[in-house]
Write a structure and sequence with these properties.
single chain, alpha/beta, nine-stranded mixed β-sheet, four-stranded antiparallel β-sheet, 18 strands, 17% strand, globular
Amino acid sequence: MKAIMIMFDTLNRRMLSPYGCDWTHTPNFRRLAERSVVFDRSYVGSMPCMPARRDLHTGRYNFLHRSWGPLEPFDDSLPERMAQHGVYSHLVTDHQHYWEDGGATYHTRYSSFDLIRGQEGDPWKGEVRDPVIPDSLGTNTGNMVRQDWINRSYIRDEGDFPQARTFRSGLEFIRANHAEDSWFLQLETFDPHEPFHAPQRFRELYTHTYEGKHFDWPSYRSVTETVEEIAHIRYEYAALLSMCDYYLGQVLDLMDELGLWSDTMLIVNTDHGFLLGEHDMWAKCHMPFYDEVSHTPLFIWDPRSGKRGERRSSLVQMIDMAPTLLEYFGIDPTPDMQGKSLRATIERDEPVREAALFGIHGGHVNCTDGRYVYMRAPVSAHNKPLYNYTLMPTHMRKRFSLDELRTLELAEPFAFTKGIRPMKIEVRSANQLHRFGDLLFEMEADPGQQHSLSDPELVERMQAKLIELMEATDAPEEQYERIGLNRKKLPS
């Protein structure tokens, strides 16, 4: 048995033809939907990029215990567990966060890996002289933008793009190993994450009149741009999405050519979506996780059931990927994994949970039962008490500061730390998410989440679900205080 996971970053469900979009060019996603089971209620867990990948490795939520960071010494890891049972794993990725401080322990869990350079502000090519940067919209400045334009100067043809090189490497692995057994390929591209830089032939699919400044990299803030500028960047995103569609098609073609559908599981997924002006905002993380960000596309082909061209309404998440892949290879999940194998869900839409938990460290804590989405906000701008529990004190691109480390004390073990006492380090950064308040949406009646419900009985019921989910993940006690939840007042 073999398995391939194609993971995109920032793949917007609402812009794919299998999910109802009628203006983007995504024929290979439509082709994929005809060959697989399509999930209609797939949601994020821990946000954003590397926390989502920690969910993938460990099969459990992590956002209530720490912010963006590496795999911890006490964490289970999907590819590591595969290796313990004779399954070879290979990672091909251009996702530069893997080789930064906050992601440096993920790729080394695989049997082998190929890291493709040049996405976003990846410090890939070295030039002392400043690059020529066009007059651009947005407030993105600094070293990342400088480095990105240096990188772009080395991308002259389509084959030079990191995504193209990533898929070329993945296809090479498949072709070299298709006759072998017991392997897992994680083929992962940073696209269609911003900046939305795509080859010209994909941009030509979306011809439109635009005479404004260069704009392919929105800032993480409220929208101040014109209708014309918003439309332009949506077309720029769509061009990059169509590039993703094209390279997805290359994998489907090779599976056809080599006859891999009979013994190879295929999973196509993403870590999260992205706001492109909806709710008058750009991006993610600085607002509640609206449906455009939290509700994700997911396609799975399981050769054992042979189910294809069907849809599933059961509630699933990233934490289910590890148990699903392990079960496929005949390996038991670890005791600390919260996710569930989706084998029966793929076969007959058998549910694996009544409600799902999702969020970001220090933000709203959210749950959904598939019909309602409840978002519980921090009660104040101070957003305290809040701590990181870790043995790996690094942030995305830097180490914890000495001031942060001076707050360090040892916490008692959590249920998943295997008897190890992690460091408890105070979080000193605040955010403004409290100003959004608590939110409650009914998704069938209000899919755009424009009108938060005021229904005390329903709020109480969703609070009970949220508390149950937090307790099941052994959430730190102060997380309840931070968002104003009093467990003792709720019915048992």
